[in-house]
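Recall that a protein's primary structure is simply its ordered list of amino acids. Everything else, from secondary elements to tertiary packing, is in principle encoded there. The following example makes that idea concrete.
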Amino acid sequence: MEILNIIGELFSDEISIAVSNGKEYIYYRPSKRIDLKIRPGDPVKEGTIAYKAYMTEQKVSEFIDRNVFGVPYHGMAVPFHKNGEIAGCVLAIYPSYTDGKSVITLKTHDGWKPVPFQDVYYVEVKDRKTHVYTKQFTGTHKNTLQEFEYNLPRDLFIRCHRSFIVNVHHIKEIFPDTHSTFLLEMANGESIPVSQSYSSYFRKMLGF
């Protein structure tokens, strides 16, 4: 299991790792972001990806709702064989990106306001604070950009710069800007840069 500890160390912030022999879990390493409270010796429950991967002998990747372990999660299970026979599977467990929420609750001068995801134009980090720009107003949030990357739905939001995450539904136009970078004209009239380190990923995600 030493190699699993090394892999777990690499992804300790994001991904929990588990190993089952088909009937029970024989290894588990929780991450900082999600912990299913599995213990070696716990039975593999019907309906989990560990169960499905073992029974079908195929890789399984899907969303599991909170009814199974008490928290929703995304997971991938890959079966492994020994002497030609199915011997178990290895699981990677990711946090649920939206965790069932559909709003961002922003701090304002006189309290907090929940804002639907679709009304958010972009998120920016500046002056050591996370600022969220919406249709109605601008507020701050305690999350870092990295945390927002995990929590915001990926069909709406994309990281384009070390300081920015944008809502793709509010990009009005994309302009080339120097070598392999871009400028985004947002629906509220602001210009957001796409840095060189994110430009290839950005193009791939938007398909151009």
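DSSP finds five helices and 15 strands in the chain. The CA atoms of residues 25 and 55 lie 15 Å apart.
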